[in-house]
Amino acid sequence: MKLFFITAFAFTCICTSAQKKTNFSSENYAGLLEGEHGSSLQLQTINGVKFNNWFVGLGAGIDWYYRRSIPVFASINKDFLKKEKRSFYLSANAGINFPWQTDNYNNEWGYNETKSYAGLYWSAGLGYKIGIGKGNDALLMQFGYDYKHVSEEVGLPYIVFDSETDPNDRFHYHLRRLSFKVGWNF
Amino acid sequence: MKKIFFAVLSCLLFFSFQSCLKDKLTHSYTIYTPIYETKERVTLNIKSNPAKEIQSPGNLFVYGNYIFLNETDKGVHIIDNTDPSNPVDKAFIDIPGNLDIAVKGNILYADMYQDLVAVDISDPLHAKLVKTVPDVFGERYYANGFVAANNMVIVGWTRKDTTIALEHPQNYSYPGGVWFDARALQSAGAAAAPIPGISGSMARFTIVNNYLYAVDHHSLLPISISVPAEPVAGNLISAGFDIETIYPFKNKLFLGSMGGLYIYDISQPGEPVKEGDFIHATACDPVIADDNYAYVTLREGTTCGPANNELEVVDVQDLHAPSLLKSYPMTKPQGLTKDNTLLFVCDDGIKMYDASDPANIVLKKHVTGPETRDAIAWNKNLIVVSTDGLYQYDYSNSNDLTLRSKLSINR
Predict the structure, then answer these.
(1) Verdict on whether the full-model pTM lies above 0.80
(2) How remote is the C-alpha of A150 from its chain's centroid?
(3) Nearest residue of B to residue A105 by CA position?
(4) pLDDT tens per residue, range B97-147
(5) B271: which DSSP letter?
(6) d(CA A48, CA A89)
(7) Which ipTM was obtained for this model?
(8) Nearest C-alpha in B relative to A106
(9) Are B23 and A161 a contacting pair at CB < 8 A?
(10) Can you spell out the DSSP letters for B186-245?
């Protein structure tokens, strides 16, 4: 949470200090997440400002891996090895991963979920950008590592404890995936 | 060529990392390990001991100037209620595994896991055990196949918070520890018996004349107490499923189950006979009754079922064919009690209704507060068990509830 606000603050500062050089930029990705629990789709949109070789923005997405969730994050990119309209870029995102579903349901361990909680989200990747046309439009490709955390507080439907005990168990999911995504930058 | 090489290298690098990635799943829970004591040592301690703090109140039973309040799985608080404005917690009877109590004459009957104990309370401050009848009640159910040891009594539990790593769900098994059965703990109860004392609507024991009746999940057990200090268990009667409470009225027993209301005739006290039933949605449902109507609260929840939260008034004038008269929406109702035309429901605090017309009961007063569990209205004094204390209200003014006292619970 702290990290998210610090990055958001930094983003605001950069925008303010570099107003003359900055341009609005939007990165929109679709891709795959590959991990121990298989492959899943991901969608992301990141919107922010571009200045010199830097891009700073705020993003949100939908992540279908294992527990569907909505990551909301701050993002920073740095271009390097620029050659004409092509360049590599390093990307880092950090923020909060919000659970998609908060209603009761039975998880696969046989527990009845009572509540889901948000957790940390972060990712880092190496991308390649190919400029298209005369404007700033570009095709994006990115490989990277992606982490999200969700937790659930659950109870067994037929088990309860005496007053001195906590009736709920907690499941934590630390999900680590490789990410491959392609996108459009304008 | 260089670009192609770089792209292939990138892909290879990407997929080679995939096998190194492993999701980390953890499960945090509490393990409970039983603390045993021999039955001999436990029974020696079934007597009036110094008062203890109320921590986990179960059912209550009003007997003369005393309130007997069950401490879930631990025993019975003896509260001197001579002055309802100043109740005094006087003593505690240690009865491990106790959930239900009932009183007749000078004898308090209580369950101690599967056993029935009879305690002489002619002097409540010097109560003493007079009889133990072993193996009267069904076994407690525990998760994970745990079975209590013979001739040993669980007197407490040690708890240990634990976190384990999980493998894939299909490979998962619970690593150990003991969990309680839900309803064994949730529907503990004392009995409603008009002559020897008054109990709450969550009762699973009740006394009618010379018989103590006890219910478990699916059985009704008559126990003869014609010689009060010598209870004799009768034949177990299969009574239905998910039975939670029992309430007597005249020569009838009203059994509240998660699926409905069962009415038993006890003209032959040792051989109750089912006379009628009223089926409703699956829910937790304490019941009380009078000559013409039964009042049932339905509560939805994880262990109760998906029913609506409501109060149902059931016409029981024809006991062979009870029918719904009217239902009233509630928040999350639990126990209830009635004194003449005043009906009290534990729901989002305590609600007082004028029930002179059961088809149109009218809310007279709503005292919001902590979660209330059960109540007894008697002699213009309303006793309410809640999560944070034992409250007493004066309802001599039928339009108002005036707080008389509160015995706090120390959790």
Answers:
(1) no
(2) 13
(3) B302
(4) 898 999 888 899 999 988 899 999 988 889 999 999 988 887 765 544 455
(5) S
(6) 16
(7) 0.76
(8) B302
(9) no
(10) HT--B--BTTTBEE-TT-SEEEETTEEEEE-SSEEEEEE-SSTTS-EE---EE--SSEEE
